[in-house]
């Protein structure tokens, strides 16, 4: 009798996984609440192809893949520390349909299947080149979502996306929360995140 | 040859459905971004039993059910106008595992299966009674989530939940967004929503 | 015995005047809370010269002049409706050191005394020209403050100001408030305002 | 020839003093933007009597006194570290009409002149007693303002003030700002502050 290892996923939700559950460095992770809004903006369906460019510790890829049992997520990352976190997290959350791609975007994008959805979590200073490369491959009715925490990224991403013919919506998410376990409840703010969503209007 | 009616769900995402897609009155709906964070706080898994108390137009029930193909959502509502919206929306989004329950909570709760998750979208002035009734039935490791838009509901829900032994976390969600189609992008704010999440610490 | 008319200012504070006290159209006014932060960013002192470009209904000019009994505020405006509001408000709040200048900026700026402070409340599509004209006249250690409610104005103002050698700080102000007189207190959000403050670092 | 020491106030604005200019510990200070809105809510006039209860490092007292050359501010504080900061700041900003009162409120309030305005920056666990003591002495048409950063203080202050017959307005201030001197502008959030303003409706 062979007892194969079986992951116990009973404690993890599909979305809303606690930030602390991910192997990560504190500044790297897309926080729980922003991740949820990001996934909403990505308009996930069951069987899509998604690219996660600058996947960081993989929290967006993992929750997206939980929503797409018949889909495929390609998580691009090249930072060595992030790759370590990513591998740990993909294993921990048994993210079978996330493919880890070691590449510094836009390198590596040409080889991937055409995406329905693209999430840009980090651009490593190559934002314009990445948007160009994505635009060449994105399927019609595709959606690009990008999270900006600086004014510069916000400004440039909107400019580049509009230059390539996209309709752009910006959502600013301000979250503050109390900590459940302290006796008195102080509201602590997260830094605001600008979620840029872009698509091409069909004619 | 018989062509049976087949819903075309191709355009609807699992979560992140546009507010405009729902039959509703403007003030009633839990907006897209807040809905996403609410679902994250509900810690949805594939096969849970959820109660949606004061289901309104049903947007939370519908997206929750999209995440729980093997679960069951009981949507309680008694307002006649809401019931109309709810029926239209359940049909439009083919929400097969949402059960509509015509009742004014806490009435009707006793007859339902024990819930893993409870979302309180509206309480009709019966907040304390509802929390008591929920507390009697909630499974261990269950989670209650409540959305408050007034200071009074925020204050009372935290008080009642703590009185019943729950650990409470409050998340304030402030969203502003630009409209995609206008030429110049003005940030428009939604009213803040306080998402109260409560659970009992296991000993 | 002659009793001359004497304004009763007893009910008006120096800053924090209620929005409803101003003759204005609803969309025009810089709201009470944002006005206060704007004045803080303007670093008002007792005896400065300030330009208020696109003065609208004059609320910023009036409160600034309350803080500068020995200073002078030049309020530029050309819109006929605004001019009516402005005149009414200057009279109502007895703003003796506010000079109304009927001009469409940058026209009219050359004739004014050099400013220590410039507030740009509206630019009428002439933002770059206004910033150029202001930059030619602003005293050393001067401060420019601009309120942006659209992404486009935010982006362009930062770009133009940095191009002219200014250090720029952006403050995003999100305000929500309950109404004092209703029985239950619902938080209502104002649209966010981006307060852009700019100055030249002394060498 | 005797050259007396003369403070150089040329660089300090009346309101909007940079947080870094105050002797303080980081968590103690009411931040610049929140201070401005707090002063607006206090409805300051030229010649009022104000109590600042739990004055901390004195930033609110100092800016309030800048707006009231003919008024008087009584700053109550008993924490030794705060008293050191307070003394340094009153000297630095030449706040001649701020009276430092070493007392742990509500102790010490009975001896003070009746206030037109009361700011409660800290209550040391004596919130109810302080509100009672203030209520006994506040002049008619007086205003109480309190800054809450925890849900508990927010809830209790509204409850106590309403119990004493006050009309209460709550303003939630969410501020994020970029740092002027960094190359790329990241928005950093301050924790939200709830400004509770209370007054009695005249009959």
Automatic annotation (TrEMBL), chains A, B, C, D:
It comes from the Bacteria. One of its GO terms (biological process) is cobalamin biosynthetic process. The keyword RNA-binding does not apply. Keywords: Cobalamin biosynthesis, Methyltransferase, S-adenosyl-L-methionine, Transferase. Pathway: Cofactor biosynthesis; adenosylcobalamin biosynthesis. GO terms for molecular function: protein methyltransferase activity. The keyword ATP-binding does not apply. This is Precorrin-6y C5,15-methyltransferase (Decarboxylating) subunit CbiE.
């Amino acid at each position: 009798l062979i007892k194969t290892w079986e992951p116990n996923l009973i404690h993890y939700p599909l979305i809303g996984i606690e930030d602390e559950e991910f192997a990560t460095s504190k500044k790297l992770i897309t926080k729980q609440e922003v991740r949820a809004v990001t996934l909403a903006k990505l308009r996930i369906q069951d069987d899509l192809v998604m690219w996660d460019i600058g996947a960081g510790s993989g929290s967006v890829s993992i929750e997206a893949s939980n929503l797409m049992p018949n889909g495929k997520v390609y998580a691009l990352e090249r930072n060595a520390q992030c790759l370590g976190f990513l591998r740990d997290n993909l294993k921990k959350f048994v993210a079978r349909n996330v493919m880890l791609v070691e590449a510094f975007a836009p390198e590596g994008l040409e080889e991937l299947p055409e995406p329905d959805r693209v999430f840009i979590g980090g651009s490593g200073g190559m934002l314009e080149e990445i948007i160009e490369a994505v635009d060449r491959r994105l399927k019609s009715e595709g959606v690009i979502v990008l999270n900006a925490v600086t004014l510069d990224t916000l400004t440039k991403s909107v400019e580049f996306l509009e230059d390539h013919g996209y309709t752009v919506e910006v959502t600013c998410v301000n979250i503050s929360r109390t900590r459940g376990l302290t006796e008195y409840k102080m509201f602590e703010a997260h830094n605001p995140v600008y979620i840029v969503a872009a698509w091409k209007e069909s004619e």
